[in-house]
Structures are given as structure tokens and as C-alpha cells.
Amino acid sequence: MDPYRPPPGPYRPAGYPVPYQPSPPGPTGSPLDAYAYQLPAPRRRTGLVVGIVIGAVVVLAALAFVVAALVGIVGGGRAYGEDAELDRLWDACAAGDALACDDLYLESPVGSEYEEYGDTCGDRFPPGELLWCRGRM
Q1: Nearest to 101 by CA among 87, 117, 83
Q2: Alpha-carbon gap, residue 17 to 20, rounded angstroms
Q3: Which residues of 13-37 are buried (b: 16+ CB within 10 A; e: fewer)?
Q4: From residue 35, how far is each of 11, 13, 22, 25, 32 by CA, in Å?
Q5: Which pLDDT score, from 0 to 100, does residue 69 have?
Q6: Measured between alpha carbons, how far is 137 from 132 in angstroms, rounded to an integer?
Q7: What gap in Å lies between CA 38 and CA 42, rounded to an integer?
Q8: What is the pLDDT of residues 41-76, one digit of tens each?
Q9: HEC readout, 66-135
Q10: Do residues 122 and 93 lie in contact, with contact meaning Cβ atoms separated by under 8 Å?
Q11: According to the model, what pLDDT value does residue 51 have?
Q12: Are 92 and 100 in contact (CB under 8 A)?
């Protein structure tokens, strides 16, 4: 029997050398490795993605509503006889009510006949002046 070799089997008498056993890998240089630190598992972000998508849909819907409202304001009631409320303001402006002329200008669709009539204070002044009818009449 070789004196430098332990007997076979799990039991060996005292004084026999222990066979070579590789040591576990040591730290890699990071201080966190010395304490067996492990990063937490990454969290799922499904809720965040769903929230962003819903937020984007809400914003797009709001923009569509604003555009539809502007198109409705710009597109409807372009001439006398098409809108009863604007016709009432037109008639009051023609009768000399300066506040009605200003209201007609402010409430009418952009580029309409109503807007031009309110801007000229019932065809009393040239269009495009930056003063209100209430201060000129």
C-alpha cells in the first residue's frame, strides 16, 4: 500500500492526507460578490405598458375631439340664415347694438360672412381694424 494514498472508501484512518478537492470559485472583484449579493429578479412592467397605451389613446381621443370641435366651429353657419343665434346677433348689430356686433364677430366661424359683418360693425367701418365696435359706435 502506498503511504501517500488514502485507502479506498469513505472512511480513512487519522493521519492520512485528504485528496485534492477544488475550492469553490472566489470573488470576481466586486465587493458585492464577497457577501454573496444577488440582484433581485427583474420585475414585469406590464402595468406600465398598459398605462402608457391607455394614456396615449386618451390623449389622441382628446385631440380628435378638439379638432372635431374646431372643424364644427369653422365649418358651420357661414352665411346669414344658416344659424338662428348668429342671425339674431346680426339683426341686433344692424339695429346699432355695438355689443351684438362684437359678439357676432367673436362667436361666428372664422372666415364666415357673420364674422366679416361683425368685424365691420354692420358694414359701418372698414374691415380689419383692431378696435371693438363698442368703442367705435
Answers
A1: 117
A2: 9
A3: eeeeeeeeeeeeeeeeeeeeeeeee
A4: 34, 36, 21, 13, 6
A5: 72
A6: 9
A7: 12
A8: 778 888 889 999 999 999 999 998 888 777 665 555
A9: HHHHHHHHHHCCCCCCCCHHHHHHHHHHHCCCHHHHHHHHHHCCCCCHHHHHHHCCCCCCCCCCCCCHHH
A10: yes
A11: 93
A12: yes
Length of the chain: 137
Mean pLDDT of 34-44: 70
What predicted TM-score, i.e. pTM, was given to this entire model? 0.45
Place of cell 394614456: 55
pLDDT tens for each residue of 79-124 = 888 888 889 999 999 999 989 999 998 888 877 888 889 889 888 8
CB proximity list for 101: less than 8 A, separation 6 or greater: 89, 93, 117, 118, 121, 122, 133, 134, 137
